[in-house]
Amino acid sequence: MLKPNFVKESHMKRKKDWEYIITHTEVIRMVLEYAAKLLCGKGEINIVDAPQTDSDYEKIIDRVRLKELVEDIRKQTSVHIRYFDLREERWYYREGIITAKKKLAGDPQGYIQVNLKEDSEFYGKKNKAYYGADYDMAETARYHNEKDNIYVMSKTILDCDVFINLPKLKTHKLGGMTGCLKNLVGTCVIKNSIPHHTVGFPENGGDKYPGETKKGQAENRLKGMALMVLKNKNPFINYPFIIIKKVAGLFLGSPNHEVIRNGMWYGNDTIWRSCLDLNKILLYADADGNMHEQPQRKYFALVDGILAGEKNGPMEPDVKKAGILIGGFNPVTVDTVAATLMGFSYKKIPTIMNAYKTKRYPVITCDASEIILESNDKKWCGGIENISYEMSLQFEPHFGWKGHIENI
User: Fold this and answer.
1) How far apart are the first and last CA of the chain?
2) Nearest to residue 180, comparing CAs of 315, 305, 12?
3) pLDDT digit string (tens) for 318-346?
4) Bridge partners of 276?
5) Which burial class, exposed, middle or buried, applies to 109 when counting CB atoms under 10 A from its CB (0-12, 13-18, 19+)?
6) Rounded Cα–Cα distance for residues 364 and 346 (Å)
7) What kind and span of H or E run contains 248?
8) Angle at CA of residue 366, ends 360 and 370, nearest 5°
């Protein structure tokens, strides 16, 4: 299984830019050729992802020339190679409002619900007002509540023997940075089974905003009323809300460039739980979705940081010509190194920091101090504690994380 980052066909604003948004063609080619060679003519390779719900999969495939790439490799091997979109539906948005939906073929093997119950990182969390991928919070609540913590997974992915993770190195508005751990969002097909933030303020266990303000209270009331209508996802009824949202934005500010909201800050206490749950499932769930005490498949990761993204990531970053590839056999060790090379402290990134604390179904079994780097750049060889901020690539964080994540 090859899992690239195919989140979106382009930069949200600069529509012709894609090379620093999704995994590059040549990185996929390199891994695909080598995997096919190691299989010695037997077996199957699947290249899959479940992009963002409004993404144009055909444009993504065209941008990375995946069809031509797969056809080239097929001429060199008898290994069966295929690629497909895991999503069941594609949604069409205007100003963040759903205006149309299209049914997709999805995973040919179907989907399976994996319930972590009390082994989820959400177990014991008091505020359970979770907001998922869209405004139907009731759907997210059906998956995550006092009894259940369910993720709807691709059966093709859980059926694999070897998982090769190919994330893109970028800053991230919800998680601080995105790498191996965050890239598993694309293994979960029903995006509303992934809590992204928790409604409310830190004072009541929420993380939508950094603190309670009158403007935040007003926005919560307005959004609460809108959700009563929008959760039905009726395109015809939703159209008037496009204008309403634009007008509201004039008073409340833009979340992409001005205002911290919707969990887009260093205090997000939700998304890291989803990311670690998905990594537990990938490592320990069998093809039928049953969890085991021992890992069920082999794992390798190669992070594409040749052209990376900084500042307003992951969808509107500035290009960062980092010129690096980071490989390893564990998602936490690779992300720890990636964060360090970006100039961030892994101890300040909740997804990484909390990965070292998981108990049952651990996603890492060593301490960060035991990680040893090997590099063609001698200053990066050895332990990560030897890499100072001055020696790093000094990525600029998303504005909601700036001043709280840097390794200084």
Assistant:
1) 38
2) 305
3) 999 999 999 999 999 999 999 999 999 99
4) none
5) middle
6) 14
7) helix 235-252
8) 170
Provide the token pair at 359.
């108990």
H or E stretch at 57: helix 57-64
Other CB atoms within a 10 A radius of the CB of residue 193 amount to 24
The model's pTM: 0.91
Per-residue CA distances from 2 to 183, 187, 219, 275, 302 (Å): 12, 11, 41, 18, 10
The amino acid that residue 18 corresponds to is: W
Pairwise CA distance, residues 131 & 138, whole Å? 9
The ranges assigned to domains in the chain are 2-391
Phi, then psi, of 112 in degrees rounded to 5: -145, 140
H/E segment holding residue 47: strand 44-49
Sort strands 324-328 and 318-320 into parallel, antiparallel or unpaired: unpaired
For residue 56, the SS3 value is coil
- Mean pLDDT in the chain? 91
CA nearest to 131, candidates 269, 294, 316: 269
In DSSP notation, 115-182 reads: E-GGGSTTTT-S---EE-SSS-HHHHHHHBSSS-BEEEEEHHHHT-SEEEEE-EEEEETTTEEESTTG
Structure tokens given for 240:
């008037």
Tokens 């004072």 identify what position?
203
Which band of pLDDT confidence, cut at 50, 70 and 90, is reported for residue 7? very high
Tell me if residue 397 falls in helix, strand or coil: coil
Residue whose entry in the numeric block shows the structure tokens 């093709």:
156
Which amino acid is located at 96 in the chain?
A: G
Convert the pLDDT of each residue in 174-186 to its tens digit.
999 999 999 999 9
Number of helices (H), then strands (E), in the chain: 10, 17
Residue 254 pLDDT more than 60? no
